[in-house]
Amino acid sequence: MLERVDRVQLVVKDRQAAARTFGEVLGAQPVRNAPSAHLGAERLVLVLGSSEVELGERFGYVGTLAMFNPKDRLDRIEVSQVTNATSAMGRWVARRGDSLYMCYVEADDVRPIIERLAARGGRFATRGSDPVIGRDGLWVHPSALCGLLLGISRTTVGWGWSGQPTRVARP
Fold first, then answer.
1. Residue 9 contacts by C-beta under 8 Å, 6 or more apart in sequence?
2. What span, in angstroms and rounded, lies between the C-alpha atoms of 35 and 124?
3. Which CATH architecture has domain 48-167?
4. What is the pTM of this model?
5. Euclidean distance between CA atoms 11 and 40, whole angstroms
6. What is the DSSP secondary structure assignment for residue 150, as one 8-state letter?
7. In what order do the strands lie in the sheet with 61-67?
8. SS3 of 61, please?
9. pLDDT per position as a tens digit, 56-66
10. End-to-end distance of the chain based on CA atoms, in angstroms?
11. What distance separates the 2 farthest-apart alpha carbons in the chain?
């Protein structure tokens, strides 16, 4: 059974430029050069041994969080359906079709990432104008990360939308 997703493969125009960008913004380091692969008509079926959390309509979509180990970890896959064609996700689907829309990661402190993005002129939005909430997370625009929309939250904040808000540690 699948228990953890620790990487996503992203197709980019320039691997070296992407590696530099992810390194400068997120402190990421290349693991290895992966050969390209064509999967043809094969399918990957994910079997999750965990609970599901229904997501109400927010941001123009509804969805379900399929959680790998909901008692101990925030590892999860969100399956969503657009309900508002003018929302950010609705516009993405109109341009690219149903596909991987966004990845999310955690960081103990999101402020250094915000500072590095700002220094590079990278587009992003914090979770709110409130200085405390703004420290909890941000969304990085695809133009700042080689086509990837990336959500970044302070460690444990994801519990708030994963069905256990009492597990969110306060800053």
1. 34
2. 31
3. Roll (3.10)
4. 0.74
5. 16
6. E
7. 52-58, 61-67, 76-82
8. strand
9. 677 788 877 77
10. 35
11. 48
